[in-house]
Amino acid sequence: MVKRVRLDPIAQVSEIATNSNLLSVLLQEDLNVLKECGGRGLCATCHVYVKEGMESLSGLTKREQRTLEVITTCKPNSRLACQARVLGEGVVVELPAGMYVNAFKDIEALVGRRAEQPLLHPVTGITLVQEGKLITRSVLESVKGLDFDIQQMLAQSSQEF
Ligand code: FES
Predict the structure, then answer these.
(1) pTM for this predicted structure
(2) CATH 3.10.20.30 region(s) of the chain?
(3) Which of 50, 125, 134, 139 has its CA 20 to 30 A from that of 59?
(4) Ligand 1 nearest atom to the CA of residue 39, by list position
(5) In angstroms, what is the span from residue 122 Cα to ligand 1's centroid?
């Protein structure tokens, strides 16, 4: 069986097999999703807002709930696309505005320029640089050790689960 999901940012309706996760819909449409933790429910980079049809998705898992709690842009209709499976019709998804930064070097290359879109932290979802603002060295400082954080997070999770 196939279900339809509407992606608001690109006004596109996408079809996927029932019980597939929302992440596969996003990837199918070539949307820029980092999936930093490899779809394990541990980062913010597949965070989406469900505008309609929350009842047509699988329920929140404990892991998803825990991750969503640290995302500063989390709203009552937030979900992690890699964890939410599509079980019914009527799902409409919207992506948070901005680009997730996944490594120190991503920002290093941009220092001194203005952000073309908001730059977001991949674990907390916090906006590091607003659109149109200058990317400074102090922003660089705030993402120092980011690669390490993500690796550590993955190591911890494999111990827990
Ligand atoms: S890809 Fe990391 S939480 Fe979904």
Answers:
(1) 0.84
(2) 2-94
(3) 125
(4) 1
(5) 9
